[in-house]
Amino acid sequence: MDICVWKLTRLWIAEGFIKEKKTQTLEEVAIENLKELIRRNLVMDVKRNRRGEVKTCRVHDMIREFCKKKANDEHLFQLISKPSEEEPFSPNVDKVHEFHRISIHSHGLNFLGQKLKGPHTRSLLCFSKHEIGVHQSSLKSIAEAFERLRILEVSEIKFPKYDAKLTNLNHLRYISLAAGEGFKSLPEAIASLWSLQTIVIDTSHHIFEIKADVGELRRLRHVKTKASIVFSGQNKDKSNYHLQTLNILSADSCKDGVVLSKTPNLQTLGVCGDLTSLVDSTCFQNLPFLKKMKMIKVSERQLGAFLAPANFPPNLKILTLSATNLEWSYMSTTLGRLPLLEVLKLKDNAFKGDEWKVYHGEFSKIQYLHIDRSNLSMWIVEDGSLPYLKTLVLNNCERLSAVPLNLAKTLQTLEMGLVPMSAILTAENMLEKSKTRQCGELKLKIGLGT
Length: 450
Description:
Helix content: 10-25%
Number of helices: 9
Radius of gyration: 24 Å
Shape: globular
Distance between the termini: 25 Å
Largest sheet: 19 strands, parallel
Structural class: alpha/beta
């Protein structure tokens, strides 16, 4: 089974396996440790992102079996299995009180329905293969049965609503839940979990409310959910200097700048909603560590303009725009001038119009460009622009007549799907010319789009 590196490293931190270093964050130390395991061939990197960072990993079956035996011998964790509906859990649930860490890979709902008591259990992880609904009483049983939990990873099980008894888990550092129909918020009392570092909520709701003030959650480092987060707490005197990930924050919560002013060390930020309210905003200027930002427009109001270059985070390296419907001319007045931008993803008609001209000197650091779902037909690139572009992805650009040939000087990978034949022919021409260049042959991948 492939393991998400983001989740793995946050679990390591919550467990207390990662030791602080003066010049590095806990997350950076965790990644260093993972790289060392990969270097020693104890862990295999399965998938990397466009910047070469490991996204998913796994261990060889033989090493996995060795680790399971060693963990069992040293009482590090206990894998609880149930081969079928008819057979009992192995080991029996009566022995749960002996285990410090429990991992369940099937029949998670059945397990939670048992009479459980784990006074020494620090971690409960459920990796059932299929998402399942659960009765509210099961959520209560977790809080009552495992009073000293540090880690609660049950994102494969959908809970109907949040239960107040979870806020009694005073040692909780990591919580990952799937939200059902009535689960639309976390209560103000979540701030009483003073050790909480990571919140992950899998939900289909458009809005998810956290009623605590972000400054009250003093040790919180990461918040991830597919919904737009609204912080409704109103304590303006406290800040959170540990928060690194806030994905996705509602545009309304950005507008007044209160939430972002309390989280000066953010590194990753997603914003979703009516982005017109942010056109003249300066709320991103004072986020010097923000390197990755995603902006998704969800409103009928059109964006006639957007942020000025000076209003973007000063050290932004990765930017994703989705459904913003901006004019291509905005590229030259703003995005092309961002001095450190390395990765740009334009999705779901982020820009509109027939022609995009990239002028000399623009996008001086871009290495990866992704355009998905665009009505662009003519793309002109002047010499001296995009000088370090290595990877170009074009999907669902059904009117694009050609790929600019002068990109062939630096381009190493070109991926295309659902583009006209004329664009494919120019790409094949680029491939042919690349066979004689010193930096190696272009890798061309042509698919069906997404």
